[in-house]
Amino acid sequence: MAIKLHGDPRATCYQRVAFILAELGLPFETVTVSIAKNENKSPEFLQLQPFGKVPALDDNGFVVFESRAICKYLANKYAVPGARLVPEDGDFEGLALFEQAASIEQSYFDPPSSAYAHDKIYKKFHGEETDEAAAAASLATLDAALAVYEGMLAQRQYLAGDRLTLADLFHVPYGVVVKAAGAQEVFDRYPRVRKWLEGMEARESWRNLVGNGREEVV
């Protein structure tokens, strides 16, 4: 029985999980759940994800939802020797720094990035007018966060140390969307941040995902 990823391939949270599946070299089947058609609110999908949000993962009968939780599960169960994306159990300092970095992404990067994408892309997709003031405020919040990132990356190669982890890779889907929405300059202001993000975008796992027709909407 294959790993099945239920979700909308255009959604950033789906992309986050698909990216990690590819990074781990895990084959999987996409079960498309169209947000535009409201399929995420269907009784069938709500059996997998009772909040009606994509994605949900079915790994041989074990179902888990919430994209970051899915990724942590996969990275632990299918860890690649010598290239773990989460620290090993017992590495208390490494785990603390990893969870700190993961919390930074979810607390300081994702909210302004998703809000900016909502105003600049999602509203247009649904025929609504962009709230330029709200978008500018979100971008300013993101800019302030990236200034802190720049300082952190001056001291280490990645957010949790000198080894790539999920906490870094989690940034890629929304980072790409924000740039595509017209905010490349916010990353260009911070050369270490730009190099860090571009390095992850250049990974074969992400390039293959892009090459398979991924669309950038939220």
TrEMBL record:
GO terms for molecular function: glutathione binding; glutathione transferase activity. Belongs to the GST superfamily. Residues 91-218 form the GST C-terminal domain. The lineage of its organism: Eukaryota, Fungi, Dikarya, Ascomycota, Pezizomycotina. One of its GO terms (biological process) is glutathione metabolic process. It holds the Pfam family GST_C. The keyword Transferase applies. It comes from Coleophoma crateriformis. GO terms for cellular component: cytoplasm. It catalyses: RX + glutathione = an S-substituted glutathione + a halide anion + H(+). Keywords: Transferase. Residues 1-82 form the GST N-terminal domain. It comes from the Eukaryota. This is glutathione transferase. Its EC number is 2.5.1.18. InterPro entries: Glutathione-S-Trfase_C-like, Glutathione-S-Trfase_C_sf, Glutathione_S-Trfase, Glutathione_S-Trfase_N, GST_C, Thioredoxin-like_sf. It is an enzyme of class 2 (transferase).
